[in-house]
Amino acid sequence: MRWRYPAFRHLRTKLAVLYAALFAVALIMLAIVAQAMIRTYAADSVRAELATSGSVYDRLWALKAQSLTASADVLAHDFGFRAAVASGDAPTIASALANIRDRAGVEAAYVVVEDGSVLGRRDPLAGAARKFAALDERRDAVVVVRNQVYRLVRSPIMAPMQVGWVVLAIRVDAAEMRALERLSAIPLVATVMYDRGGGRWASSDGSIASDRSIDALIHQSRHGRTLETLDLPEGRAFALVKPLAGIEVLPHAAILIRYPYDAALAPFVPLQIGVGGAGLLGLALVIVGSRRLAAGIARPIAALDAAARSLEEGSRATAMVEGEDEIGRLAASFNRMSAGIVEREHRITHLAFHDTLTGLPNRAFFRQALDQALAAVLRADGAVAVLCLDLDRFKVINDTLGHPVGDTLLVGVGDILSRLAPDALVSRLGGDEFAIILSGRFDADRPRALAQAIFDTLRDPVVAGEHLVVTTASIGIAIGVTDGDNADQLLKNADLALYRAKQDGRGVFRFFEPALDAAARKRRQVELDLREAIRCGQFVLNFQPVFDLKADRIGGFEALMRWEHPLRGLVQPNDFISIAEETGLIIAMGEWALHEACHQAASWPGHIRVAVNVSPLQFRNSGFQAIVLQALARSGLDPGRLEIEITESVFLEGEGPVVDLLHKLRAMGIRVALDDFGTGYSSLSYLRSFPFDKIKIDRSFISAINDDPSAAAIVRAIVDLANALHMETTAEGVEDTEQLACLRGEGCGNIQGYLFSRPIDGSRIAAMLAVETAIAA
Q1: How far apart are CA 68 and CA 102, in angstroms?
Q2: CA-based nearest residue to 38, from 257, 296, 319
Q3: What angle do CA 389, 392, 393 make, to 5 degrees?
Q4: Are 149 and 142 in contact (CB under 8 A)?
Q5: What stretches of 566-670 adopt beta strand conformation (E)?
Q6: Distance (Å, rounded) from C-alpha 33 to C-alpha 25?
Q7: Which of 178, 247, 220, 212 shows the shortest CA–CA distance to 191?
Q8: CA 639 centroid distance within chain
Q9: What is the DSSP letter of 438?
Q10: Where does residue 693 rank: exposed (0-12), middle (13-18), buried (19+ CB within 10 A)?
Q11: How far does CA 711 lie from the centroid of its chain?
Q12: Containing H/E element for 730?
């Protein structure tokens, strides 16, 4: 038996060594698995961060497009610029393009006219601008010119038909990429790539040489966004490609976003070292504690794996691992990483649903809340009320005190509304428009009481920086589900009530009424028909004679616009002029009327003038003087035969610019008349500011001149005032011989009205003048 003992002892030693080796191998394998899982977790988190950064850049790219397009729209809608493009005024166009380049900070600006020619700097980029303008619906595109990448945006030029495009170009260079890198929460690197031809790509700044792996990744990205790991000369990196749509089918430029592999895994290196140290320490104790050690490692790693999978699926994940060892620290790092991702997601979500200036819920949040409130009302008892609030004359505050004061005022108003309605949802829909949702069980008088409380509070000045700003508001109120059983309808009806409040003088509140919706539909239809009428040329001019009492003959005609609708027939001016002024369509209509009136008047006898009414919106347009000059030049009409009629409402936004323009028109030889004199509050002061050629006495005085001594006295005073100031007078609305006799007796110089003639078509003017000449002979 003795000879067996050494063998047994040797076998036991071998078994011990074998068990120890097996335990060591198992421990090493566990360490390797832990290292691999750490790398997997790190890679997954980096991929999530890189995808999030790509989404942030999508929003940055869209915001940049909106900014550039807005700059192009401002220039394309400028009346003087449109007139310059329509008339081919090269110096004016060049000046405007230079101004927009400096103001918008763009690389180049062009005008592409309808025949395809390009106005602006002559360079290779101009050819790309011409190709871009020929596209059908795209507003922006990316092109490659001489190994440089440019972004183009465009805006149509309407005068009133489309005569061309404004095209702005900005270089997509390293500065743009640095902005992306600064917005990211990780140290990513972004580079602009362009197609060198033959499927080979290179960076526009020369920082990256051509690489086949990059070429393959860009090719794959054309069929969907890809996220890959690349082995580049500069090192291994996670990479994402965002193709930039160009003017051709396939993009010729792209953004390569990279996150260096070493930088991505650097935070986990201490954890890897810690796991390795734990493995070495465990190896020394493997014989006595291998089973316990294995169990102690397996469970935390399983917990980490489950947490990582949960995080990968988008859920909030926490690794429930306790202890101060390496696994515990790894779990703590994982938990911090998970919390950081969740915190960033919450921040992005908050920005998506809240106004950045006031911190109030924005339109998207408001829309969801209103849907939920209406759904709750439909399920159970209760009510919903929507109050839409708009600050009155907020633009004037911005223009006079500056945008910082305006922003501070908006924040102050938001605080006031939140304080007055703690039980409601207060949101800022945009600009100076706020909205409030009252929901649940509230008193039927609560919306009215809240609106009145807002008015009472706003009577006191609001502190805005160093200024005390006095402002008022208009409020529209709609009640659900009576005024609407869905969010869109209820908000629209509250907006209609707000519009009525502004029409009724501002500083008031109005509840929605069904008649408002019908009126809005009718107004919208008229607006659509007006746009069609401008496009199809449905407007005509009628002319009402102005009889010169002193010369006993026709001295001129007033041009009056008429709309011949193809279905409704003749539409009265009262039914469309106010809508045209509110929508800005009156500018194009007035421009047409001025050109047409001058064209027809050019064929009349030399002593006959033509008078054209000009709306305040048209008169305040920056290109009005150029339009008048163009109408005279094209028609050949003597400027002294054109008479511009304005009302005192053109002075409401300041006398200085208006008087300057009136003097410029007078210097051209054009006559200026003050229409509807005596109906405003400041007519006498305007006569002192500018020497009008004519005063038109409003028909409200003429209709009562025979029966009302005060009306006759007012007419007499106006005539005497005009004679003292060396101005002519025209009495409007003369309809009977008694009125004519009284006006002759008072010394009025001209009359206009149905007594002499109704407005007639321009084709009948020659016959009317011939009859007058025959009678005089």
Answers
A1: 13
A2: 319
A3: 145
A4: yes
A5: 569-571, 609-613, 642-646
A6: 12
A7: 178
A8: 40
A9: E
A10: middle
A11: 50
A12: strand 728-732
Rounded-to-integer distance, Cα 620 and Cα 600, Å: 25
In Å, how far are 232, 533, 542, 564 from 567, measured between CA atoms? 70, 12, 20, 9
> Beta strands 433-440 and 425-430: pairing type?
antiparallel
Among residues 123, 165, 164, 119, the alpha carbon closest in space to that of 140 is found at: 165
d(CA 214, CA 239): 9
CA distance 589 to 596: 11
d(CA 452, CA 441): 20
Separation of alpha carbons 659 and 570, rounded Å: 36
* CB-count exposure of residue 318 (10 Å: 0-12, 13-18, 19+): middle
For residue 15 the two structure tokens come to: 């078994």
**Residue 597 burial (CB < 10 Å; 0-12/13-18/19+)?**
buried
Q: Read off the tokens for 640.
A: 């002294």
417-472 pLDDT, tens digit each: 999 999 899 999 989 999 999 998 888 889 999 999 999 999 888 888 888 888 88
Spatial distance between the Cα atoms of 247 and 201, rounded to a whole number of angstroms: 18
> Kind and range of the H or E element at 201?
strand 200-203
Close Cβ partners of 733 (under 8 Å, ≥ 6 residues apart): 699, 702, 703, 752, 753
Write the CB contacts of 356 (distance below 8 Å, at least 6 apart in sequence).
none
Contact criterion met (CB below 8 Å) for 392 and 495: no
Longest dimension (CA), the chain: 164
169, 107 in Cβ contact below 8 A? Answer: yes
**Residue 728, class by beta-carbon neighbours within 10 Å (0-12 exposed, 13-18 middle, 19+ buried)?**
buried
Tokens of 480: 């659900």
The residue length of the chain stands at 777
For 253-298, the pLDDT digits (tens) are: 888 787 787 777 677 667 667 766 766 776 666 655 555 555 555 5
pLDDT for the residue numbered 323: 63
pTM of the model: 0.49
Collapsed DSSP state (helix, strand, coil) of residue 238: strand
Give the integer Cα–Cα distance in Å for 565 and 52: 55
Question: What's the rounded Cα separation, in Å, for the pair 113 and 130?
Answer: 9
Q: Which secondary structure element, helix H or strand E, spans residue 521, and what is its range?
A: helix 514-536
**Buried residues in 454-483 as b, exposed as e (16+ CB within 10 A):** bbeebeeebebeeeebebebbbbbbbbeeb
> Is 669 within 8 Å of 650 (Cβ atoms)?
no
Q: Residues 471, 465: contact at Cβ < 8 Å?
A: no
**Which residue do the tokens 């006219």 mark?**
113
Measured on CA atoms in the order 28, 34, 38, 44, is the torsion positive or negative? positive
